[in-house]
Amino acid sequence: MEYIITYRGEKFTPHNPNIHQIHIEDIAHSLSLMCRANGHIDYFYSIAQHSINCAIEAKYRGYSARIQLACLIHDANESYISDITRPVKQFLPDYKEIEQRLQSLIYKRFMNSELSDDEFYLVNAIDDDMLKCEFNSLMKGKRVFDSIPILSSMPTFKYKNHVDVETEFLKVYYGIMHAGIIQGK
Q: H or E segment at 26?
């Protein structure tokens, strides 16, 4: 089979994506059902929760609506091609190429352009800081990182029902879009 069928019913071809078949509702739904760290944590915590926390952290750091949106959708490709852990991904150049092409298209779909190098740096820094805090909280008794960053926001790493997370993801998305329109992105 050359395609997946998305939550909204699109026949989506991940290795040859169509920008018009990328929908925020598909992303929110799928990521709310995917567990971080391949499930090697104390309880279910979704990629959508991680993304929401990253967007909120960007807001608390005073970053633009554009950076907040980039943080919210930085893992959106995983809703179409799943996630592969960092230690394995480095050995899969074809996967990385598909992932990068798809994520680039997602940024174009929702932000009208790819991220600049400076924007990518800001998003990646928040993503890495959040990952360290999440793992510290979600892997009790297992020291993964030598130091844990101090975040500007007060994220919650508690279990949340996937329906509530999906709703929150969309609420954050539309809030950022509204703020971006008012502020000129």
A: helix 24-32
**CB neighbours of residue 147 within 10 Å:** 7
Distance (Å, whole) CA 185 – CA 98: 28
Under 8 Å between Cβ of 102 and 14: yes
Residue pLDDT, tens place only, 65-112: 999 999 999 999 999 999 888 889 889 999 999 999 999 999 999 999
Cα dihedral across residues 36, 101, 119, 112: positive or negative: negative
Gap between the Cα atoms of 16 and 26, Å rounded:
17
Q: What's the count of helices (H) and strands (E) in the chain, helices before strands?
A: 8, 2
Could you report how far apart the first and last alpha carbons of the chain are, in Å? 39
Beta strand 4-5 with 11-12 is antiparallel
What six digits make up the tokens of 127? 């993503």
Are the C-beta atoms of 58 and 122 separated by less than 8 Å? yes
User: Is the sign of the CA dihedral 61, 42, 83, 110 positive or negative?
Assistant: negative
Instruction: Give backbone dihedrals phi and psi of 35, rounded to 5 degrees, phi first.
Output: -85, 140
Q: How far apart are CA 79 and CA 56, in angstroms?
A: 20
Q: Is 125 helix (H, G, I), strand (E, B) or coil?
A: helix
